[in-house]
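User: hey, got a sec? need Excinuclease ABC subunit C folded
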Amino acid sequence: MNGYFCYIVQCADGSFYTGWTTDPERRVRQHNRGQGARYTRLHGPVRLVYLESLPDRSAAMKREVSIKRLTRAQKQALASTYNQILE
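Assistant: Yep! Here you go:
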């Protein structure tokens, strides 16, 4: 995988965390080892439920902000479309 990605992980308590990265697999491992964001340290472990490829860092950061503004139901809808692609 090359480029920039915006992602959503679902925490053990069912809550969602959104971020951006250049390496989604590494980032999920970091979250699960307690090396990610404070939020995921407190609510982990996590599993990747949504991933979106973006052309550059700026676009990834802007997309992260826009996803964070979504309601829980809208985040669940994004996650369900991603899961359908994987199946």
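Quick note: The chain has a mean pLDDT of 92. Let me know if you need anything else on Excinuclease ABC subunit C.
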